[in-house]
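Study this one:
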Amino acid sequence: MSTIALTLAPPRSRAIARISFQIACAVIGSFLVAGLAQISIHLGFTPVPITGQTLGVLLIGGAYGPGLGAVTLVLYLVWGAIGLPVFAPQADGSHLTGLHVLSFASVTGGYLWGFVLASGVVGWLSRRGWDRSINSSIGAMLLGSVALYGLGIPWLHHALPSLTGGAVTWRFTLEQGLYPFVIGDTVKLMLAAGFMPTAWKLVRRLRPGGEG
């Protein structure tokens, strides 16, 4: 089965146009996530902020598919690694940039790499039709979120001692990196899940018979 982006893309016979379309999708998607990252709330008791990024990650995975979706999120990480202020701002409004933000010592590095994994998971499920109905779309977005936290939380657990000055428990890590975000991520998950079937209805009108 196809994805929304691939359905709207030029046919394979027009290789250059198709590749150009995919490059444009990756650039636009990466800056969509960058824009949503600026919607940031710092809670004070955790180094991990609440941001709008997750919504963009789930939407890109669902609309683009696993390959283009993952490439788009890697491109987003590249922007930040080379110095562009695309990551969520700090409490003082400044932006961390550079490769160290993505390192194993970074408290948010695991979540950033988790964006790539989550997009790939959601995209893989979307290629199998999980984005066509609200129920299966919720399942896809949920599994994508699980993948994100599955990488982000252990990474955070490894990085937290450098901030606290000593070993931390898993309970403390979950209090810092999971529990405060459950409600907000559930809302974003539902928004993304509701968007995908609606978007497919529009695509079917624009491209009758074009769905793979």
The first helix runs from residue 4 to 8. The chain has a mean pLDDT of 95.
